[in-house]
Amino acid sequence: MKIKVINGPNLNMLGIREPSVYGKSTYTDLVNLIAKRAEELSLTCDFFQSNHEGDIVTEIQNCYGAFDGIVINPGAYTHTSVAILDALKAVSLPTVEVHISDVDSREEFRKFSYVSLYAEKIIKGKGFEGYLEALEYLKNK
Ligand code: CA2
Prior knowledge:
Layout lengths: L1 E6 L11 H4 L4 H14 L3 E6 L3 H10 L6 E5 L8 H10 L3 E5 L21 E4 L4 H12 L1
Helix pairs in contact: 3-4
């Protein structure tokens, strides 16, 4: 089973700023953590991070016929991007949306997610653990 893990804008800054919201670990720590759990679950994981909406759309399109599921933290595009929602609908793969922080207990504008209109599971506020839970969900579905 092949899973694409997509992280959106600013998630490459993990561990560098705002440790009170997003923790002290870096994006590389996150990738290593997910890769280790993927190996334990006998999943093949591929990682993509971009600060550009169109590049994320293209990456999702490229998953069609090549991956069995998507784990996505669209970052701030969560709350704005119809294009990412449409790309997910177009490829029609099982998708889990992950947020490191508890978006529901932050600013009002973080409560709405376009991606949630498609994602079959949404994990919020569990830190990096949320990505591991997402892998387990896709493995066991
Ligand atoms: O909680 C999440 O995972 C978010 O998707 C993170 C996004 C935010 O816009 C969403 O509302 C919730 C922001 C990611 C920014 O990541 C940073 C990491 C370190 C330093 C600064 C930003």
